[in-house]
Amino acid sequence: RKEVEQDPGPFNVPEGATVAFNCTYSNSASQSFFWYRQDCRKEPKLLMSVYSSGNEDGRFTAQLNRASQYISLLIRDSKLSDSATYLCVVPRGGGGGGNKLTFGTGTQLKVEL
Amino acid sequence: GAVVSQHPSWVICKSGTSVKIECRSLDFQATTMFWYRQFPKQSLMLMATSNEGSKATYEQGVEKDKFLINHASLTLSTLTVTSAHPEDSSFYICSARGQGQGLYLGADTQYFGPGTRLTVL
Q1: Do B115 and A43 count as a contact with CB atoms less than 8 A apart?
Q2: How many interchain CB pairs under 8 A, A with B?
Q3: Is the pLDDT of residue A98 over 80?
Q4: What residues in chain B have per-residue pLDDT under 70?
Q5: DSSP B94-120
Q6: What is the Cα Rg of chain A in Å?
Q7: Does the structure show a pLDDT above 80 at A94?
């Protein structure tokens, strides 16, 4: 299994739809996880951190399944402005901070009218 | 808070020249800075980790003599691409991790600069 694996997409969805992305990781000792958003030719920006079973922030929900070693990102009521690449990020170390980050290749989302 | 700047935002140079990229943390002290490279349609790949006042540690396969990193202060790290060649053309992004007054920075959270797009002719 790759360190971090994502479906590259693209996911083309209509505005208002609900869309979910999955990400699998190989390091069972990982304690924290991140979803970053990257717009074309821009730097990644932190979207959500996940430290326990999940996290919710407005239209965005991240869930963690440690037994199966995957995290998901759910976007409800998609907006045109949500179009971007979503990067799943996992610290390399076992947790506790100070770790390097491993980035997935990203899942591209295109929200259409 | 937690703003990271990079300069220049883009640069075009001739093959064989050296290019210096600066990364600054504007409102917090960056005890650790990271340098990444991203080729088109690929993920970010960590090149090196630099801690203030010490030598950078490079990832496997990254030539330390070609990519010189200096982290002289808690707010500034520089990456110099020496004798650049067309295959070095890429998007170089720095990130910073550290502590700042009034900010909570999770233990593994990194904040990214806007990136520098390097094109070597």
Answers
A1: yes
A2: 51
A3: no
A4: 1, 99-108
A5: EEEEEE-TT----TT--EE---EEEEE
A6: 13
A7: no
